[in-house]
Every structure is written in structure tokens, then in C-alpha cells.
Amino acid sequence: MVKNKISNIWEKYASPKLQTKLGIAFSLLAILISAVLTFASYLNSRAKSREDIRQRIRDTVGIAALQIDGDLHAKLLSPIQEGNPAYIQIKRVLQRRWS
Fold first, then answer.
1. What tens digit of pLDDT does each residue of 28-83 get?
2. Pick from 93, 43, 97, 98: which is nearest to 72 by CA?
3. Cβ proximity of 89 and 72 under 8 Å
4. 35/52 Cα distance (integer angstroms)
């Protein structure tokens, strides 16, 4: 009889009810879906931010390139010419652009 009561108690509390199992499963599924959507949103935002930065760099470089005298730039052929007046003039134009 005591063994029967223990068995009844064990069956009652040892295995969760179907409702509890479904609730836990639903909660885990909701957490998983939320995590996947959050990660996808993060990846999308990161890609958009990178593309925006690339576009801003392209715009800035394009504007800076228009301000440089092409004939002066054509005279610069090697890094040795860094002290050259043409180099210094181009450098000043670019420094004004960035400041």
C-alpha cells in the first residue's frame, strides 16, 4: 500500500504534463525564432552601415579628386618626389579638404 502511494506520487510529479511540455516547447521555439530574427536584423544593419560608409568614402574621394590639378598630379611619378612643389600643392589641397 505504501509502495502504491509512492508510485502514485512519483507518477504525478516525476513526468511533466503534456501542457507543461507544450508550454516549454513553445517558449523555446519563440526564443529561437527571436534569436534568429535578431541575428538576421544585425547582419542586415551591418551590411547597410558598411555600404553607407563605402558610399560616403566614394563621394568624398570623388570631390577631392575634382579639386586636384591633373597636370600637377601627372608630374608625380615616384615617392621620391614628396618634397616636390607639385606634391606640396596637391597635399595642401587635400589637407584643406579633410580639415
1. 999 999 999 999 999 999 999 999 999 999 998 888 888 888 888 888 888 888 88
2. 93
3. yes
4. 26
